Amino acid sequence: MKLRITTNKQTSIPMGGYNVEYAGINEEQHSPRTNPSHSYKKISLLPLIFLIFYEVSGGPFGVEDSVKAAGPLLALIGFLVFPFIWSVPEALITAEMGTMFPEDGGYVVWVSSALGQYWGFQQGWMKWLSGVIDNALYPVLFLDYLKSGFPALGDGYPRILAVVGLTVALTYMNFRGLTIVGWVAVLLGVFSILPFVIMGFVSVPKIDPARWLVVDLHIVDWNLYLNTLFWNLNYWDSISTLAGEVDNPKKTLPKALFYALIFVICGYFFPLLIGTGAVPLDRDLWTDGYFSDIAKIVGGVWLRWWVQAGAAMSNMGMFVTEMSSDSFQLLGMAERGMLPEFFAKRSRYGTPVIGILFSASGVVLLSQLTFQEIVAAENFLYCFGMILEFIAFVRLRMLYPAVSRPYKIPVGTVGAVLMCVPPTILICVVLALSTLKVMVISVFAILFGLVLQPFLKYVEKKRWVRFSTSADLPDLHNVDENDESLCLSE
User: Fold this and answer.
1) Is the predicted pLDDT of residue 42 greater than 70, yes or no?
2) How confident is the model at residue 149 (pLDDT cuts 50, 70, 90)?
3) What's the rounded Cα separation, in Å, for the pair 65 and 487?
4) What does the alpha-carbon distance between residue 383 and residue 428 come to, in Å, rounded to a whole number?
């Protein structure tokens, strides 16, 4: 593929101070990755919905701490109100920016386009690290649900070997192709959610609406409450790093985000409604895995086993989807020349081999952290990444309001700024509530990223490792700023 100048009069999109235009790309050329040699099958709507579902949620497993921290009423209100403060703005921004820049770099490209490649790299570093930290949870949670039946998996070498073995098996699934991961996500999602549908029907005679109204503001653990809400309702932007693998992303991505948003909110709220209404309240019991106990109370042992199996499968689904996003993000950064060229190497299945190996190694190294430490650390890093995304979104709206956006949030520049205010305030609250240990570790990781990018530039200058920009992407560094627009052609 090569660049050609067109007569399109639309404003071009800047990337690090240079002009690039996606607006002239037609339906068949909706993605910068349309080289005929890239014959990998694209992701369709249904698998994309479930990939987003697993990027963000995976089901109600892990929301139990919200009841322990704040009681039934605040937990229910939280999972109804919090999405409008955080999830909806993040999903809308992902839809707009993801269709403007339909390539695997995702949010890295967004920030680079508005703030330059240095800050784009910082965005990529923080988001990749938070994603790997997040992924370290899922093998651990998977084994936590199995250890009641297999006590040997509780600790020691059997647990370590099980974590490594599970990571290797799921990593191989990622290696085999994104379309396989997508359809596996569909099957796992249906299997994981179905027991809660059944639980809803069989629990109706036991529901006591008065239990939903219990609240005591004097014994609320706000740190645990907000971190639980935040962790369970973020990562909507992660799907943007797979935009280059989506079939017709300018139409498919906004639809998938809309359906996934409804799916995720319902998948949290109704199980909480059932669980808090069907059994007497004991807040100390509301910890990870308590939904399986509720299933036994309302439906019997068979339903408990199904919920436990669903939780285990859900963790598998979240692992493979998160690893897909993390590894394709590294591929997208390498295609933009931010990382060494070997990160852009694809397997015969179209998957990023080196990115998968790096992400899997990080998961194994971080899997010894506790659940609370992992959640707090990833939230801290994720918050800083989201601040950069909000700045990039508003800056592009202010500087280039007339540029073509395949999907555009129906608000003006002022509306875009106001939309980012509530989630930014929430970010500040989450950061302020962080423990000193988490803050120190996270700040160290951020500082490491600040020096890592200049170091890689030095490595590139010395030619110790090869860096290159993919020929399939618009040339962002040798474009005349007076060119009115650019698009891709065969």
Assistant:
1) yes
2) low
3) 49
4) 8
Identify which of 143, 166, 164, 138 has the alpha carbon closest to the alpha carbon of residue 155. Answer: 143
What is the Cα–Cα distance from 117 to 113, expressed in whole angstroms?
A: 8
Question: What pLDDT does residue 13 have?
Answer: 44
Among 249, 350, 414, 283, smallest CA distance to 39 is for 350
- 132-146, 258-272, 348-362 — which is least confidently predicted? 132-146
Residues 6+ apart with CB under 8 A from 153: 143, 146, 147, 159, 162
Contact status, residue 114 vs residue 396, Cβ threshold 8 Å: yes
Query: Cβ distance 134 to 378 under 8 Å?
Result: yes
pLDDT the model gives residue 122: 95
- pTM for the model: 0.84
Place of tokens 């396989």: 180
Separation CA 309–CA 484 (nearest Å): 56
Burial degree of 220 (CB within 10 A; 0-12, 13-18, 19+)? middle
